Model the fold of this input.
Amino acid sequence: MALELLVHGVGGTTPQEMLNDPRTERVTGDGTAAVYRRARDVDAEERPEEYADRPIPEAYSWANLTSGNSARALWLLLLPFMVVNLAHWTRPAATGRATLVRSHGVLVRLVALSLTVLLVAAACQVALDLVAWQCAGTPRCSEGRDWLGFLAAGPGEPGGWWSQPGRRLALAALVPAALTVLLWWLSHRTWSAYESQPPWREPVPQNTPRRGAAETSAGSTERVDGGAGTRTGSETPALCLPGFWYGRRHVARLRAAHTAAGFLTVAGALVAATTRFDRASGGDAVLEALGWGLGAVVVAGATAVLYVVCGRGRKEREPDDTLDSTAVRLLPGAAALVLALSVVHAAWSRPGWVSDGKLPGDATFGVLALLQGALVALLAVLGLLLHRTRRVPRTALAGLAAAAVAMLGCGLGGVLSGGVTQWAADWLGGSIAGPPTVLTWQAAAIPVLLGALLALLCAAALRLRRRADRLAEKVHQNYPEAVRDTSRSRRIGGAIARAGLTDAAPLLVGFVASVTPLLGAVAVAGSWFTGEVPGAAANGAPDVLDGFADTVQALGSYLIGLAFLLFLTWGRRAYRDQSARRTIGILWDVGTFWPRAAHPFAPPCYAERAVPDLVWRMATWPRQHAGRRLVISGHSQGSVLAAAAVWQLDPVTRRHVALLTYGSPLERLYGRWFPAYFGPSPLGSLHQDVVCWRNLWRLTDPIGGPVRLPRVTDRPEVDRGPLRDPLAYGRTPRQPLPAPILGHSDYQADPAFDQERDGLLDRLRGSGLPAQSGPER
Done:
């Protein structure tokens, strides 16, 4: 008896669609992720004679892990965190450079920490500076806004208890503090549902010692015993390690540090404002001393946060069930206590304090931009060094992928934080001093970046058109019996040309990542050296240049605010519309496959639930009876999950499983962007470990492609393709209507699918493997 375990790709294909039957039943799992069968196949094991010549089809549905709950639409606001988390996994493959690999991880975690500080600082900028300090302290801004009435003092009036600037700041500090608590809660909630899933453990007889794997180098182990995924004397793929999909302790540790960093950022903003007044006014010496003491505590807390973030990375050799030290677990509470003391200190009566201009800390955003640029530059250097130690063919950006992705994450964080502050300043009106100057300069740089990107896209579109025309001249040659049809050839050639754009993604990412820091440096330099917004004063410049500066600044402010509003609108629509929620789910399907190794506030890793589900299913089903065979059949992102699950199987079970992938991005996307985990060496190891593996692909598929592995002795090649698409060029007696161009979908419609699946089952039957048996778990 054989089982075919189907795993869908992005977009959330339903079990009914996967099994081609409207009547399906859940056989195991829950409402989040489950295995389904057709109603007539639920008791198939009791009727083995009916399935002697065909497998039992099962469908593993994991769509609700990313797009099931409407609240997940809010994850769109966590996009910068998700992107910077990807930078951890895009490092080049390396051999014997453990120190460089650890340094690479530390740098990415520091970039991620800077994004948390940037987001909370932007919330402080809006709540404390723009609203509580500037608008509430300016009668022209506060009048007409009833919700600010209790904070503002009218012209010639003393005002109420809350009208003192320190008390206004203390009350406004609740907003960024609440944002930090919200991020902590979301991370904790998803942590308990995703990272806490126990991985598969090989049953061990009683009184048998169980040993682990000794680490030999970054991403490799030597076999010490018969643990899953190890081979004596050879490099073991990282995805074979038992603790790879169990990040409970690491995410908890990072969550504590980032939460503390958020609270300390708010406390630092309060202490900076109150200490400046106490020192300048020469008032109460006790308050000034307390302010300096709180400032020292904030610095000490920041040092502790840096130690926690840099001191320890992921542990993957074994599932890490131990708890962190008490100091780490109490770090968020201690930071919250410091924030509470800072609030009390700020709310103390200071009768002579009047809010004027901007709060101190205008240079904070410039310092953060410079810090992020320096960290990304160091990442680039490490990436080049690691790539030189082991040059993997087709690696994206030749080792600079991690630096480019980290820069994109910083750019998205800048757009999000700058959009919030710019939009809030525009909403409050022109009677206030406005946001920090560096944000205004960054807004002026955005139209320049978009213009350069538009020129690049136009060039790419022209090149695409030319390539499509060249392909249209030859595409009919793949159908010898067909009569050439110009319009049909153009459609097919255009589909192939558009599918090839995926291979140009590194060029686009590299261009944006290289231009972004240049424009950011111009913005920081402009804000620090001139101290003025672009176009604010002529300074002897020609009127044309001054007008151009004013135009790009206004356009950039509009665009950065529009981008933020689009984020909110898209999230609101996704909250109400299930189809839009599925579209956003596709983004998470690709971006949240990897564990949260760098940023704990990123959307959760669904693979830490999906991979253990698949491993448990594949490991337990063949053990029920001897001689059972299993084909795991993965489409698109499902093929990545299938490969990750097969890697986690113990060697004995792995030899009873065949792998069928189609529309697979294993090499085309994952192999190029994540060479340390899906490069030629790990994929070649997977090919050697499984009895048989076949991969189907099409030229019209924009996502899937060949695996590009050399043929192993006595085994067929992994790749079969390119398959014909469409199946028929024109109208035929068997295809009287035009056949559709399938692209990335409906691989089961191709006769090659059934042929390859049946061939895999036959090879498992004829492999002569010993029957596997064992207790069910």
Q: What stands out?
A: Confidence is low (pLDDT under 50) at residues 205-234, 537-541, 768-777. Residues 606-765 form one domain. The beta strands are 2-7, 24-29, 34-38, 56-61, 214-217, 220-222, 629-635, 657-662, 693-698, 719-723.
